[in-house]
Structures are given as structure tokens and as C-alpha cells.
Amino acid sequence: MRRPARIALCMLVLAAPAAAQQDTTRLPPGVMLETRYSKAGRQVMAVRPFDAPAPQGDIARQVSEIIRNDLTLSDRFIVMRVPVELAVAGPVDYRSWNGLNVVWLVTGELRTAGSGFQIDIVLHDVVYGTTRQTRTFTLPDAAARDFRLAVHVAADEIVTWVTNQPGMAATRIAFVRQNGSGSYDVMLVDSDGENLRRISGSPGLIYSPTWSPDGTKLAYTVKDENGWRLVERDMATGATHVVHRTDGETQILTPTYVPGTARMAFASWAGRGLHIHEIDAAQGCCIKRLTTGGGDNISPTFAADGSRFAFHSTRTGRQHIFTAAADGGGAVAITPFGESVEYASPDFQPTGTRVTFHGASRGTFQIMLADAARPGGQIQQLTSSGRNEDPGWAADGRHIVYTSQPRLGAGSASLYVIDTVTGEIRLLVSGGNGGGLRLADWSPSLAKTLALVPKP
Prior knowledge:
Blueprint: H1 9-12, H2 16-21, E1 31-33, E2 43-47, H3 57-73, E3 77-80, H4 94-99, E4 104-113, E5 116-125, E6 130-139, H5 147-163, E7 172-178, E8 184-190, E9 197-202, E10 205-211, E11 217-224, E12 227-234, E13 240-246, E14 252-257, E15 263-270, E16 273-280, E17 285-289, E18 297-302, E19 308-313, E20 320-325, E21 332-333, E22 343-348, E23 354-361, E24 364-371, E25 379-381, E26 387-393, E27 399-405, E28 414-419, E29 425-429, E30 436-442
Parallel strand pairs: 1-25, 2-3, 2-4
Antiparallel strand pairs: 4-5, 5-6, 7-8, 7-30, 8-9, 10-11, 11-12, 12-13, 14-15, 15-16, 16-17, 18-19, 19-20, 20-21, 22-23, 23-24, 24-25, 26-27, 27-28, 28-29
Helix pairs in contact: 3-5
């Protein structure tokens, strides 16, 4: 249960001058460029085309391909193509699979059930020649909007069976698209880059979409001629309501949900700067200020247990990432000090203590990591080329989505995903010829929103 907040576009310009003046030949103080990625130790897995009666054969093949792709994108396995001679129904010949160095084999059998399907998925331990797991999953009709998401749920179960860690296939990414006309849209895309769609739009500015901890709601801020609004959307019905509004130029920025509560945190003006506040999301009342001191304080993002939050602050004269107790007390910087350093847009890892953010490095912005449990410790720089900003963790605590212009000053910003273990980078959504894609936020697992409970 983490909910990040994305830094608003208007705040990014604060870091730009310092980044431009930075020594482009050296890394910032305390930053290490990660060049020691390793793919060693990944076990070989295969997904045999799933069995089904002839009328459902195409559906079964589609399901097995989605799962195969999900397992590949998990970056935890070497997923091999199945030889023609082994892509047949029937008992598993463990000796033949073992001869191909396959460690894990996934098989399945699909059948109709009501208006949809049921699929029995089996995980085989090839080395020991045994069945490791068997489970039945329910799928909606293949034309249903959430058909692929339901298949992703099964893929995440397979990841958990093997690794005892969460998957990230059954998730979606929300982000802002700036159109060439100057209007803004809130967009959604599945974790594998499929099902791209627009869910809301505005002729004015839209900032910082953020998922609720249970994945049932999405909040974001809107700026138009009527002022600023903090909007919450019910993802099942599409209904929206305004949680908080201000008139004129009083900003509402970077909302996030507070885990285990009915409250949201956001940044807004207080005194001479921006400060982080809490509000009752349902009632739209009872605002409480969390941060104190000087400078601007924005982009709150909470640890999964809600005990602490990270945020970005200019209280030292430079943009740094701080953490504080849930009530705002005991703030401490987790990024190292130095000349011309600038760090912004933090997101707390949903499975641990690491915080990702972007920082100025060699004249541009790059994606970085710090450990909130080790303030002032070594910073890990994940990217090294192009301009990369606004990172957000996946539910597996391993992958990060971010905005990138691979060539500085060339083309629109697109969304990419990086695996923090292997260093693999993939394009998620291309920015095309528009104004660019920004401020992405990765959902938690959406398995429960489908009301899909695997049968033992």
C-alpha cells in the first residue's frame, strides 16, 4: 500500500538552471552510476500452448501468449520458445524438457464457464519431475474490457509461486498526455503497454494522477479558469467528485493517499511557500499542515505502512529529498549535499525502504535511488542518457516507470520502464508527435478489483 505523488510540471523548471550549470563530466557528490547489472541466475521457463476444445483453441493460445509475455516482462526468468515437437497436449515428458535446461514449465487447460472461461494452470518443476502448483482461474468473455487484466492475475500468481515475491502484470499506469492543442488528458495503459485509453480530459492543466492503495480510485489536480481542484475518480463507475478546491492562483499539487487512512496528502501554499497538508478525502475537510520551515515542500509519498513519507524540499536552498514521520516531525535529508545538486519527484518503494527520484547529473536529469533507512548514503543512478524524470515504482518493488526524452531536445517525452535488477529498459508508450507523456503513476495489483479469487 504505497501511493506516490508526482511533481507538477511547473516545479520542474526550478531545477533546470542548476542542471544546466552543472559540471557535465562528473557525477554529483555521493552518486554512483550503476553499471554492474547482472542477468545471471535467471532460470529457464517455458509456457506450453494451453489446451482447449477446438472452438476455444484461439482463446487458449491467446491466454498462453499473454502469460508468456508477462513472465518475460517480469525479468525474473529466461522464457524460451517451445519447440514444435513439445507444443502438444498430454502428459509432460520431463526428460525432454530437462534436456533443454528448462527448470519451470507452465501448462494449462481452458474450458467455457458461463459467459466466460475457467483455466486450470499447472506449474511443473522439471528438474524434480513433479507438479509444483495447480490452480483454477476464472476469466471473463474474451471481448470484455478486463479480459487481459484477468489473465495478468494468473501470470502474477505464477511469479509468486516460483519467487515468493509479488508480480506486476495485473496493474495499470495512469499518466498525463499533453496534446498539441494545449489541452491535457488523463490516460491509462496496462503494464504490458496494451489497452491504451483516455479516461478524462481538460482544456486546462492536469497534474499528478495518483492511485488509491486499493486501486479503486484515482486522484489528480486540475487548473482552469475557475482555479485549482483536487479531483477523485471512481475507477469502476467513472464518477468524480471534488475533494478540495481553491480560487485564483493558490495551487493544489502532487496529491497522494495516506495508507491505512481515509486521508490524502497534497502540497499547497501556506505562508511564503508550498507546504504539505492532509485532508479527509471523503468529507473534503479537516485540513492539517504536515511540514514546517522555509522553502517549498511538495511531492509527498508514503511508505507502505504509512509510518513515514518522503518529499522534496528547497528548505536548504537546493532541491533535496527528505523523509519525515507521518505527522511531519523529524525531517531528515536522504540525498547528499553538494554544489549544484538538485533532486525531485520522489516515490517510496511499495515493498521496502528505497525511494526513487530524478536528479541533476552531467547536465540533465536521470533516474536515481536512495535508501530511506540510510540518510545521506550512496545514491544509485539508474539511467545515463537522455533526459529522464518523474519515476514511479511498480507493485513488485523492482520495476520503475519514468518519462524520458532519449535524445535531448528531440521528440516528445515517452514512457519507459526499467528493471532495477537487470537494467533492462523497454518502451511502454510512445509520446508520438504531441506535447509528451508525463507524471506516470503505477497502480497496485488490481486483482481484487476484478473480484477474482483463485480456486484451490
